[in-house]
Amino acid sequence: MSTMKRDSFVMKTITSNKEFKFNVSNPFDKLPVTSPTLLLTGENSLKWGQNESLLRNRMQCRAVEVKNMPRYTMGKKFELDDVIEAQQFDRETLNAIFEVAKEMENIEKNSPGSQILKDTIRTVEGYSDIIVMRHFESGAAKRAAATAGIPIINAGDGPGQHPTQALLDVYTIEREIGKLDGIRVGLVGDLANGRTVRSLAYLLAKYQDVKIYFVSPDIVKMKDDIKDYLTSRGVEWEESGDLMEVASKCDVVYQTRIQRERFGERIDLYEEARGKYIVDENVLKVMQKHAVVMHPLPRLDEITVDVDADPRAAYFRQAKNGLYIRMALLKLLLVGW
């Protein structure tokens, strides 16, 4: 997919037989898509949906019985029309999505060709199409959702939010730590521009007795809107310049990269911030045995490669969980619970 320009961006539509690429100056006026279609829009390139083969294999599925979810029944419409912000979800909905994600995990691991939408795949036109959108402007996905008559999934809107990443992050924490209430989480790196940590903070606020530590260079500190939101929800937070101390207290050390593209031409500020906080073997030594290191990936040098061999390095398992969460969202938006 070609690089997007500010006055236009590239859209890619995937069907079961063909692939079309086209540029549009305003993607919300007219979307030339065929049915059934998953429309991906790109900031630079978007691998959210993997590829055409994955879509064909993963989206052919049979109805799955989801247990222990009294509020939701199979065939009931998913209560959210779009996936735009982390604030959309309540705890009950999160638990239900995670249950569906676990079903997706079982299907992916145990079936070479899952069948969840077989037969259904022919009638996807009768459900809807989905637009998966990545854009350089914060709030772009929300504006698209206000215009579109089909579901919008925000796959990252500049420095705004990345709700599907936050969903897989919380899912990973639950799988790795075994709980979401009463946890301590250290968010490290570019917190001013990191859309993943912003969305994650919103979701962590849904849980009880959570404390969040912000560890970042001064130039990229967490913005006040997130701090104010956490305070309004009674979530304890603290800013710290000492990664070692924070790592010794936390269940999760969530590292992010310092993003050069967010600094524009101020390379001096980028170089000042880059490399200040690095997760290495020294950090691992002070971490608790049950704690984990997470990262939304890709990484640069903010986690040293020798950390990869430690069982507490959860970021590759975290990435795999993204497949299950996004399979679950597609299933829920297309066919309901």
TrEMBL record:
Return the SUPFAM superfamilies for the record: Aspartate/ornithine carbamoyltransferase (SSF53671)
What organism, scientifically named, is this protein from? Answer: Gossypium arboreum (Tree cotton)
Per its record, how is this protein called by name?
aspartate carbamoyltransferase
Q: How does the record describe its quaternary structure?
A: Homotrimer.
Q: What does this protein do?
A: Catalyzes the condensation of carbamoyl phosphate and aspartate to form carbamoyl aspartate and inorganic phosphate, the committed step in the de novo pyrimidine nucleotide biosynthesis pathway.
InterPro entries, per the entry: Asp/Orn_carbamoyltranf_P-bd, Asp/Orn_carbamoylTrfase, Asp/Orn_carbamoylTrfase_sf, Asp_carbamoyltransf, Asp_carbamoyltransf_Asp/Orn-bd
Using the record's annotation, list all stretches that form the Aspartate/ornithine carbamoyltransferase carbamoyl-P binding domain.
Answer: 116-174
Gene3D superfamilies (alphabetical): Aspartate/ornithine carbamoyltransferase
Tell me which Pfam families the record gives: OTCace, OTCace_N
Under NCBIfam families, the record lists: asp_carb_tr (TIGR00670)
Name any Gene Ontology BP term: 'de novo' UMP biosynthetic process
The EC number of this protein is 2.1.3.2
Which protein family is named in the record?
Belongs to the aspartate/ornithine carbamoyltransferase superfamily. ATCase family.
Reaction catalysed by this enzyme: carbamoyl phosphate + L-aspartate = N-carbamoyl-L-aspartate + phosphate + H(+)
Keywords from the named record = Pyrimidine biosynthesis, Transferase
Molecular function per GO = amino acid binding; aspartate carbamoyltransferase activity
Q: Where is the Aspartate/ornithine carbamoyltransferase Asp/Orn-binding domain?
A: 181-332
Question: What metabolic or biological pathway is this protein involved in?
Answer: Pyrimidine metabolism; UMP biosynthesis via de novo pathway; (S)-dihydroorotate from bicarbonate: step 2/3
